[in-house]
């Protein structure tokens, strides 16, 4: 049999180049890993893009999160009537609050559970439902699945999600970390600009030798934040709020905000109709979040009623007095938006949009038990440094590799 001419080889490699590119790109997706010891946890954020139109309650159930806390973390008005049943549009980018714990010597969130549907695969659960925050192999390992092609509908899976703490600081300042899944067209400068940080800071935090990223990588993004000073015995000890957003605490009785003028945590009664313990400071007529001021020859004498944490079901308030150079004006809250109904499609090079870019009027704020989810839709120089781990999508890679071998045999 005559040999096939070598001139056919360039055409062959051109034909298979997309397959090999996909193999390399998928196999080498990186995720920042933070080693840890002990059992402590910290508040963290997960960057998530909705894969379908979902109710607020459905998104919250997907991550076992509090619906009100989810909205507060995105500066969405949670006082809107029946807000848990508002439908959020597919493609909307959200920051999902998560407890970042220490498990197996690394930081990750293991509180999320997912109920398998008939058409689900590990790949569809990882890439579509959870937006690339987990890989098929990570789900397989976390659930000790022997045969990933034989998933039983109705089975409950643990979904390991990436998160980092780094002592809740960045360059010695309070910070909360967002796990961000890189999209096609993203660049480190664009992501840095989107989150008001620097290329150097992102590279230091993620232990990057160069500012080179690819689709599917997961970056730890430090967000400036307001830290609390609650005692360790408070149930909301360690509360930290990203700049420009809110947090809900004390059984939905207290809302705390950060910014926009400074990074001092400011807590007031929440605008929700729930039964709460007293929020009045003892030996004073002041309520939580209120203050009085009086100009004196030495400066402005300010007395304020501040939040001190949630202890044994009671709201702790503390009366404080200080002398300031000038009397404070009316407190400025971060702006809030109504639940988004549309998404402005980002351009090729634009990083992920925030809810504030999703349409609706920006306003100022007025002073459910999560369960297993089953959803509709398509089945730092002086800062912290993490390590980088390769996240391999082996099930998809093996399939493509096998296809390549079959075609090689047929052609040669």
Automatic annotation (TrEMBL):
It comes from the Eukaryota. SMART domains: LysM. Residues 1-29 form the signal peptide. Gene3D superfamilies: LysM domain. The keyword Transmembrane helix does not apply. Residues 361-375 have a biased composition (Polar residues). Residues 112-159, 178-221 form the LysM domain. Residues 376-389 have a biased composition (Low complexity). Residues 350-389 are annotated as: Disordered. Keywords: Signal. Transmembrane segments: none annotated. This is LysM domain-containing protein. It comes from Ensete ventricosum.
């Amino acid at each position: 049999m005559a040999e096939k001419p070598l001139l056919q080889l360039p055409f062959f490699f051109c034909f298979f180049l997309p397959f090999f590119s996909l193999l390399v790109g998928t196999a080498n997706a990186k995720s920042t890993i933070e080693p840890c010891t002990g059992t402590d946890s910290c508040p963290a954020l997960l960057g998530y893009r909705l894969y379908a139109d979902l109710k607020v309650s459905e998104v919250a159930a997907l991550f076992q999160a509090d619906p009100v806390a989810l909205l507060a973390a995105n500066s969405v008005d949670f006082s809107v009537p029946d807000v848990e049943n508002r439908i959020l549009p597919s493609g909307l980018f959200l920051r999902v609050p998560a407890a970042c714990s220490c498990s197996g010597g690394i930081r990750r969130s293991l509180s999320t559970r997912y109920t398998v549907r008939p058409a689900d695969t590990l790949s569809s659960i990882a890439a579509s439902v959870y937006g690339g925050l987990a890989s098929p192999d990570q789900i397989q390992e976390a659930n000790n699945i022997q045969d990933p092609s034989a998933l039983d509908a109705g089975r409950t899976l643990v979904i390991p999600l990436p998160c980092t703490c780094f002592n809740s600081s960045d360059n010695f300042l309070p910070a909360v970390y967002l796990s961000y899944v890189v999209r096609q067209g993203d660049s480190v400068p664009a992501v840095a600009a989107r989150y008001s940080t620097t290329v150097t800071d992102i590279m230091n935090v993620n232990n990057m030798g160069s500012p080179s990223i690819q689709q599917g990588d997961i970056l730890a993004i430090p967000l400036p934040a307001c830290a609390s000073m609650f005692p360790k015995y408070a149930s909301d000890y360690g509360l930290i709020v990203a700049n420009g957003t809110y947090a809900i605490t004390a059984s939905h009785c207290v809302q705390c905000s950060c910014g926009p003028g400074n990074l001092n945590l400011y807590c007031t009664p929440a605008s929700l109709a729930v039964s709460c313990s007293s929020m009045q400071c003892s030996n004073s007529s002041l309520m939580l979040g209120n203050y009085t001021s009086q100009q004196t020859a030495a400066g402005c004498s300010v007395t304020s009623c501040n939040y001190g944490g949630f202890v044994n079901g009671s709201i702790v308030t503390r009366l404080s007095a200080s002398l300031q150079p000038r009397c404070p004006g009316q407190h400025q809250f971060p702006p809030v938006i109504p639940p988004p109904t549309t998404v402005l499609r980002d351009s090729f090079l634009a990083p992920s949009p925030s809810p504030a870019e999703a349409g609706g009027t920006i306003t100022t704020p007025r002073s459910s038990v999560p369960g297993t989810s089953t959803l509709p839709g398509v089945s730092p120089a002086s800062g912290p440094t993490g390590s980088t781990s390769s996240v391999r999508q082996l099930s998809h890679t093996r399939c493509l590799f096998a296809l390549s071998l079959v075609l090689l045999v047929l052609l040669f």
